[in-house]
Amino acid sequence: MGPFVNKLLLHPAAKALVFALCLLPFVWLVYQAAFDLLGANPQEALVRATGDWALRFLCLVLTVTPLRLLAKLPSLARYRRMLGLFMYFYALTHFMSYSGFDMGFDVADIVEDIIKRPFILVGSLAFLMTTLLAFTSFNAAVRALGAKRWQQLHRLVYGVAGLAVLHFFWMRAGKNDFAEVALYAAILAVLLGWRLRPLRATIQR
Ligand code: HEM
After folding, report:
1. Which residues constitute the domain of residue 10?
2. Full-prediction pTM beyond 0.85?
3. How confident is the model at residue 200 (pLDDT cuts 50, 70, 90)?
4. Distance CA 194, CA 186 (A)
5. Mutate to test the pocket of ligand 1, among 48, 109, 122, 165 (most ligand atoms within 8 A of CB)
6. 21 CA to middle of ligand 1, Å?
């Protein structure tokens, strides 16, 4: 099974197919917006849906390495950067929807909101870190920084995960609705916990 899936993932058309699949939520949102299918508050629905997709892609990108090693699928590595950039794409769409629909692209209002509302501040920090990761995700950046420093920098993704959950938690705290937050927090805890295995092994020795 493993070798077959590996081969499939290496197929020349596979990357284009995964790209199209990643774009599908965006296309679906545009379609819903165009045909007025987003409910009573379409602007809020767009801000929320793009935030959800950014978080989902964060979970997906963090799943690549454990799945690659556990299922012995080395060719999965080819998809990590694309998934990470899609996470950035949805985070950017989320930020732009908030800036446009909630704030009318008024920079002073946005800055004031970031200072005033802690959950917006936390989301902005996560977004800034994601921006740094996206802009240094290319081979030229790996060469410029050196593999070790690049790897250290890209550990920021764990900080992004923590801040994204905190952002979501804080936003839902006002509504006393934690079921989804707990689900994402559990998924991310498993994915990050898995990465701490070498540390645990050293402590136990
Ligand atoms: C990596 C960055 C970010 C992630 C992963 C993220 C994720 C999320 C998630 C999952 C939600 C909840 C959606 C739902 O209720 O279903 C949300 C809501 C929201 N986020 Fe973010 N977010 C990020 C950055 C930001 C930034 C930079 C801002 C604004 C400066 C922002 C503003 C908002 C707002 C206004 C809401 C909706 C609040 C409401 O409807 O009451 N987020 N975000």
Report:
1. 2-204
2. yes
3. low
4. 12
5. 48
6. 22
